[in-house]
Specification:
By secondary structure, the protein is an all-alpha fold. Among the domains are: 180 residues, Tetratricopeptide repeat domain (Serine Threonine Protein Phosphatase 5, Tetratricopeptide repeat, Alpha Horseshoe), CATH 1.25.40.10; 76 residues, Serine Threonine Protein Phosphatase 5, Tetratricopeptide repeat (Alpha Horseshoe), CATH 1.25.40. Helix content is 66%, strand content 2%. It is built from 27 helices and 2 strands. It has a two-stranded parallel sheet. Helix 12 packs across helix 25 and helix 14 runs antiparallel to helix 15. It is globular, with a radius of gyration of 27 Å.
Length: 505
Amino acid sequence: MSARRLAAVCAAVLALAAGSASATPTPQPAPELSLDEQLQQIFEHLKADRCEAALPLMRQVFTRREFLQKPVAAQGVTYEMAGLCEMREGRIEAADELLAKADKVAGLHDFGLQARVLTGLYGGHVDQAVAALERLQAPDALKAFKLELFQDLKQTLAAREKADLRQRMLAALDRLDFAPDEPFETFDAAWAEYARMIVDQNPAGAARAAARISDPGPLLELRLDKRFAALVDAEPARFDLRAAAERKLAADRAAMAANPKLLAGPHTVASDLRVLGRADEALAVLDAALARTEPNAWTDAGDQLRWARNERAYALLALGRFDEAVAALRQGADLDEHGTLNVSQVINLAEVQLQVGRPEAALETLAVFEAPERRASAYGVMWVKSGQACAYAALGRKAELRMTLTWLAAHADDNPAAHTRALLCAGDVDGAAASYKRRLADPEQRADALAALSQFDPPPVTAPGVKAAAERLAQVRARPDVQAAIAKAGRVERVPLVSVYWGDI
């Protein structure tokens, strides 16, 4: 919370505290300052953005008997402010205790609920974070949050057993009409997921969520799902995927021009161009951006540089410049990820090495995950194991392949696509077909499976590993049992775009 907001809240506290309670407190030694004088000092500190000075005074106030004689609204909001200050000082547990006390005494204002979303998420109480989110009332209550917070919360709730909490979170964001205001950011994938969650019980709500979507990827997911057939038929122009991709490119180009110091701009525009089959233009955009080496050329380089190098590698791969693609991704993999050892680009590097026929190098790349300090999520570990399985298959290391496939099958719920991909690499067409059928039968997974079984435009140059995988996928797609499962879930299509992420399988 800003100093101005804290000061305004404190002013309200002083106004409430000015009235005396009817009860007379038990006599005690007079403190050096009266309660109102201490509250005034707190106000001055908060006005000057000095939480570290205000907190000791607030702790003193909480020990005074006359504080408990003040109106409950005054007590509650003072606890609230103390909680906010504790949070700003990085003491999440202490902040949460004070906010809980404020809630018990008088209920929380929206700013207190906003704080409890944070303390719940980062204090390990995601149910509390969702409950606080559901209680927010003001239409602009979500403006205090960056999109990253909701992505973190959604990721924390990704496990199947937390699907109810995830739906509640998305329902709260839907009610408050959440829209990220950061350039190049989108919540479209989440809106598509929410639409799929509620379409059977609440078709109108699903249509409202779908109306927020403009990204061609989530639009494709809805387009293929038979539950959205009426919506797609009613709005053919909006579900025209090629037109949607062109619109996204135009919007992102405009945003890039308006935000010349954000490396996310060239990265996003390059990805848009690859989707449209224009990998040469994508490479030119990124080369121009990465040639800027002046100090502070990019305000978001800390996180975006690794993704820009990642995107450049994909453009080089699409153009058949395989050695350069590997080198570019190695540069990205050498960069930290959120202040820790890189995970995403290392996994992507191994995949590129597999695609260009270098399974030994891929195994060497993935071996870094044996070190405990390089931590991947359960989802990421599945990609690591899947990459190892593909390398073992390419090298004919059958015993290691069998062991890895057994492990992947036991953990398939953590990342079903990674399991499917390993089965395809192993040439297990029956196993891959069974995996796709399970995914198609699951309302939460069918969108990814339908998209994976669709046929996309090829890139300018197709890497040898991609060709082999595509041949096996075609065998799976053609099977009558898979065709029947597809028809039950929706449809697959010939998509007039290039698939730009290898994990969409």
